Amino acid sequence: MSARKPSGPKRYLKRFWRSRRGATAVEFALIAPILITLYCGMAEMTQAMMAQRRLSNIASAIGDLVAQSSQTGPLKTNDIFKIGNTIMAPFPTTGALKMCLVSITSNSTGKDTVAWSKPSVSNMTNCPAPGAVLTDVSTGVLPANQSVIMARVSYTYTPAIKMFLPSGLTFNRTYYLRPRKTDTVLWNTAS
Fold first, then answer.
1. Residue 96, SS3?
2. Is residue 109 part of a domain?
3. What is the pLDDT of residues 6-21, one digit of tens each?
4. Spatial CB neighbours of 101, under 8 Å, sequence gap ≥ 6
5. Which end of the chain, N or C, is more open, meaning fewer C-beta atoms within 10 Å of its C-beta?
6. Distance separating alpha carbons of residues 182 and 184, to the nearest angstrom
7. Domain total for the chain?
8. Is residue 1 domain-resident?
9. Hey, what long-range contacts does 60-66 have (CB within 8 A, 24 or more apart)?
10. For residue 166, is it within any domain?
């Protein structure tokens, strides 16, 4: 006796389960959301790393520009802050980029005092006020009877996709540079 072949719907159902023609499409449909999510996440992280690198460039550049001068003032620092905004392009800077330039002097006992400071925006909380005593500057950076220029910058990176970083990231950088032409960079309200 021969085995009887299934007929009708059973035969088509059996052939459907054995067929491999749509397997690749089904596998792609299962893997595609994971791949798209990974791609978007890597794109967000790459953009954040680029913003962080530009922020480091801004901190060193604005501090270096002030350290090369013998004196500075509100007009010069405003121009330096414009340079910082230009370095940060194409990332948006309005409300996200905050810069601060500070001259710190140390007396013979090693007490570090802010001689002058200029923030780029009025609500910058981590920019010390003139006359403030700082305790977080190491003696390797600022020995007794010397001065240093501190450039402090902050940037809040907000991603375009907002898949993994819905609230964004805030990056902070601080650079210390010694004055080059004089012992102390003076503040002159006319320059």
1. coil
2. yes
3. 667 787 777 777 777 7
4. 62, 63, 66, 72, 77, 80, 117, 118, 149, 150, 151
5. N
6. 5
7. 1
8. no
9. 60/151, 60/175, 60/177, 61/87, 62/99, 62/101, 62/151, 62/153, 63/101, 63/149, 63/150, 63/151, 63/175, 63/176, 63/177, 64/177, 66/101, 66/149, 66/151, 66/177, 66/185
10. yes
**DSSP letter, residue 183:** S
Beta bridge partners of 72: 187
The answer to whether residues 189 and 73 touch, using CB atoms and an 8 Å cutoff, is yes
Q: What domain range includes position 133?
A: 9-187
Is pTM, for the whole model, over 0.70? yes
Q: Has residue 3 been placed in a domain?
A: no
> In angstroms, rounded to a whole number, what is the distance separating the alpha carbons of residues 50 and 69?
29
**Per-residue pLDDT, 133:** 95
Question: Which of 81, 153, 167 has its CA nearest to residue 124?
Answer: 153
**Residues listed for the chain:** 191
